[in-house]
Design brief:
Cyclin A, domain 1, 17 helices, Rab_GAP_TBC_domain, 2 strands, globular, Helicase, Ruva Protein, domain 3, two-stranded antiparallel sheet, 3 domains, mainly alpha, 4% strand
Length: 295
């Protein structure tokens, strides 16, 4: 399945990128291979991994630099994945490492600095990668999938995401879109947490999140729009019935809580169908272009 090679100052696994590999990713990467496969895909099939040893040295240099965001990071760290044994102990090893990576990155990308939501992303990465490698993966995520614009002041990519999700919901889940429109529920009312945590902020159960991240690492940020629509479709019947009853508060509480997915395989097949069709039509880029022309 994979060949071990030397790259970026360490031994890594080279997978054969093929339709079979893509199919395997959508079916769910075996957890024992997830670390290696995520690194392979986020580095553009290892083509962008050549200088990762330099990033590790940069990380260690940044650890010696204070950050104006330290206080807020310290406040947010104990609130993050506190149910996970790695992060349960205040000022334990897991929380210290999480703090270190976030502080270092706040100095690496000073325009972003630190934003709530990043803690969830980094904590999730730390469950699969060691401290230095987590920083490396984080920099690749920001560079390759333009997460920079998701977190900078004004959150331009987040505002754009709301608009794209609205249009995709109208196309793929028109009944939900119509029901939400009647009571003026927009994606901005509930989906901020979805996007700024890359769905890692308790949006879905962990087993579903891992499947989402498998395809996110493979296909990039655009696939998350289809994940959002698939999640609304998953709960479509309940959402519409509850709105008919006029229980607006229950709807908002549900959209702000962890949303269960009954069958991960079926859910990811739905994501893959929408994503494949949308990519073939150039749908996201078309919606993005229209949004930016209006801005």
């Amino acid at each position: 399945m994979a060949e071990k090679i030397h790259k970026g100052g360490e031994e890594v696994y080279q997978f054969k990128y093929s339709p079979k590999f893509i199919k395997r990713v959508f079916k769910g990467i075996p957890d024992s291979w997830r670390r290696e496969a995520w690194y392979y895909t986020i580095t553009n099939n290892l083509r962008e991994a050549e200088f990762d040893d330099n990033l590790k040295r940069t990380y260690n240099d940044l650890l010696r630099v204070s950050s104006p965001h330290e206080r807020q990071i310290d406040l947010d760290v104990p609130r993050t994945m506190h149910g996970h044994i790695m992060f349960r102990t205040r000022y334990g090893q897991g929380q210290r490492i999480l703090f270190n990576v976030l502080r270092a990155f706040s100095n690496y990308d000073k325009e972003v600095g630190y934003c709530q939501g990043m803690t969830n992303v980094v904590a999730m990465l730390l469950t699969y990668f060691e401290e230095e490698k987590t920083f490396v993966i984080l920099t690749h995520l920001f560079r390759r999938y333009n997460l920079h614009n998701l977190f900078i002041p004004g959150f331009p990519a987040l505002m754009e995401s709301f608009e794209i999700q609205e249009r995709l919901t109208q196309k793929y889940a028109p009944k939900v879109a119509k029901a939400f429109s009647k009571v003026q529920i927009t994606s901005s009312a509930y989906a901020t947490r979805w996007y700024i945590t890359l769905f890692a902020g308790g949006v879905v159960p962990n087993h579903t999140l891992l499947r989402i991240w498998d395809v996110f690492f493979l296909n990039g940020f655009n696939v998350l729009y289809y994940v959002a629509v698939a999640l609304l479709k998953e709960h479509q019947g309940w959402l519409i019935d509850t709105l008919v009853k006029g229980d607006f508060e229950n709807i908002m509480n549900t959209l702000s809580a962890t949303m269960e997915v009954k069958n991960d395989d079926r859910f990811m097949r739905s994501v893959r169908r929408m994503h494949a069709k949308g990519e073939a039509e150039g749908l996201i880029e078309s919606l993005r272009k229209k949004y930016r022309e209006q801005d």
